Structure formats: structure tokens, C-alpha cells
Here is the input.
Amino acid sequence: MTKVDDRVLGVDEELSSGGHDIEQVQRRTVRTLLASQMCGGIGLVAGYSVTALLADDITGSKTLAGLAAASLSIGAAFASFPLARIMARGGRRPGLRTGYVLGSIGAFLCVIAAITRQFLFLPLGVALVGIGNATNMATRYAAADLAKPERRAQTIGLVVAATSIGSGFGSLVSLSVFDPIGRSFGLPDYAGSFLAGALLFLAAAAIIEVRLRPDPLVLAGGVGSGKDDTRLPFTVALTLILRSSKARLAVLAMMVSQATMVGTMTLTPLHMNDGGQSKGAISIMLFSHIMGMYALSPLVGRLADQIGRYPMLVLSGVLCVAGALWAGYTPPEGFLGITGGQTVIGLAWCFGIIAASGLLTEAFPVEQSASIQGAGDMCMMAFGAIAGISAGAIVSYRSYLDLNLAAAILGAVLVLGVLLTVVGKDRDGQSGQTPLASADQDSESGQTVFSVTPARSY
Here is the structure.
């Protein structure tokens, strides 16, 4: 049984005994993250699914509706690194709690927008809801803090899978359950969905505050105590990523996965609507796409642990190319082709995000992990926001096919990036890694006893 000395703990962490059973703490951590992720997933999708509808209802402008929807990615992009800085200083719990509370405030602002009919509150509120989205994404790293190296990607996949329950359920009940309940209490259209989202984000924050103890990042040795500050400035974190071939590839994969998913999905419902397809068909397409993103996450994580990160990233790129071409060459009235293509793109996102998250987690010592992960997520969310905003211009001035051809090109770039990384692996070696501390090895058991920081095996 692997135990941790009390000296590791800091930042308001107290022990009732001389050590912790890491395996037991990890099981509790994963269960806590699964519960918070489901609440956060429902809260996110319940509100976001009606954002464009509310914006269009208030302003009558498709352009402003698109801006309101894009605010989600913009908020997530700006929040990713600051949240990571909070975690690097105080642990996962304060960072996740802060993100969920801000997401709740954002959803309440959207309720105010619906009541007052003031559009300005909507993009501001949705941007704060985007912080809740960034928090949902950050839970995958919290699950990996204490995971064994051979099960790290599988653990990430398990937590990501919880989003399929939250997101799928949220997409089904937002308009059919939450909104009617809101109207029964005298709220205007769509306000009930955002109100439910606000309450669920608060529930997620409460779960994290009460249950995420001890804090996994603190226990892993990734948080400074006293005068030690493990936070890295964004420029330093980005420099470290650029110097490491593994980290560069991981962030590239996350950026490609997010951009192709956000970019194509932003305009697909409108493309289907132009083809005369029903709202029911569009809802099925969205649900199938979400299932592609999340439903197979545990299996994808297990495969990433068993066959390696690089083959999974190649598969991600290939799936991205295949899905984009399938959807792009399908006419707007073709339900099966568009739905099938978008489902494959969702699966490509799943392969890319899980394998890349595991690769990025392994590329640096634990003291640097929170800041590095935040910088990576900021790049991912920012590229996704750019893709979402650009999608409208591409379709307006070119076509839906050209939008998907651009996504296919990004998938091919990812495959090329993997091949170049593998070819240059021997030359690069371990460049880009700057370990801050090392772990002592237990000569008798062969296990690592974490006196300062755990070793990263990869």
C-alpha cells in the first residue's frame, strides 16, 4: 500500500493519521469528480442549448445570436489559465469550486437577460458559464493527479464519460422540462433552463467543497507550501510546452480536436435546417454527436494506456478527416451522412482529448502540471473560439463543404505532427523537461514514497 508523509500536505490540508492510502483517496476523488461532472454537465448544456434561441428572441439578429453562443468558448479560453493558477497555489478544490460558482453567477445573469430583455447581460453571462465549462474540462486533470501511470488515460476517460450523462440529459430536458417549469413559476421563455443550470453549477461547487478532501493535487505534491509558489506565469508555461516535443504534440492535438468539433458543429444545425430537416432530426444529430464525444471515453482511455498515446492521436486525426469529409460531401437534406459524419468527428475529439491530456500530464513534473495544463487548455479553448467565430464567415462566403474541408486539413496536420514527433523523438530525447524535484525510490518495495513530489513515469 502506497502512503504519503504528512510533510507533503499544505494549504489548509490536515491529516487525522500519519499517512493516506493513495488508492483509497483516488477512488474517493474519482467518485467525487464523477458526481460534480454530471451536475456541471447538465448545468452547462441546459443553458447553452437555449443561448442562441434566447439571443434571437431578444434581438432578432442571427449575428448577435452567434456572438452570444461564441461567448462560451471565449469565457472558457480566458478562464483556463487563471483557474490553473488558483489550483497551482491552493490545490484542485479551490480552483474547481471557484469555476463552478462563477458559472452559476453567469447562468443567473442569463436569467436576468431573459427577464429584462437586455441583450448585454446574455453574452456576459454566457462567458461566465464558459468558466463553468473550463472547470468541467479541468476535472480530467484532477482525476489524473493520483492515478497510476498505467491507468492515467483510463481514469481521465472515465471522468470525461460522466459528461455524456450530464450533457446528454441536459440536452433532452432543457426545453422539455426545465423551461416549462420556469414558465410555471412566471419566468419568461428560456429563463427556466438557465435557472436550472445556475442551481446545478452550485450543486457541483458544493460537491467539490465537501467531498474533494484531501485535495489530490496537494497530496501529489503539486502545491507549494509556505513561501514556495509552484505557479508559473503563462509565458513560462507556454515556453516549457514549446520546448517539449511531447507537450507540443499534446497541445496541438487538443487544439485540433476542439477546433474541428466546435467549428463544424456551430453551423451544422443551420445547414440541416436549410435542407428542410426537422428540429427532431437536428436534436438527434446533436445527441449522436455528444455520444460520440463522451460515451466511449472509458474504452478510449484504456486503449490509450494499452497501445500508447501516439497511435490514438493518429486515429484521432484519421477519424477527423473521415468525419469531416463524410459530413461535408453530404447534401443538407441528407440526415444519415451529416449525423454519421458529426458523430465520427465527436469520436475524433474523444480520442484526441483523452490521449493528449495523458501525454501532457506525463510530460512535466507534478509541481509544474497545473500551470502547464492551464496553459494547454487556454490554447485549446482559444483555438476553438476562433474556429467557432470563423465558421460563420467560411460558410457565408464559401460553403459548408469548405468548412469541413478545413476541418479535414486540421486532422491531417495532427497526423503529420505525430509522425514528425515520432521521427524526431530520439533526437529530442527529454528536452523541454525541467524537473524541479525527484522522488526517492523505496529499495525494498520498488514503490515511490512521495516525500516531495511523485515521479512521472512515461
Remarks:
- Confidence is low (pLDDT under 50) at residues 1-18, 430-458.
- The chain has two domains: 20-215, 232-458.
- The domain at 20-215 is CATH 1.20.1250.20 (Growth Hormone; Chain: A;).
- The beta strands are 3-4, 20-21, 440-441, 448-449.
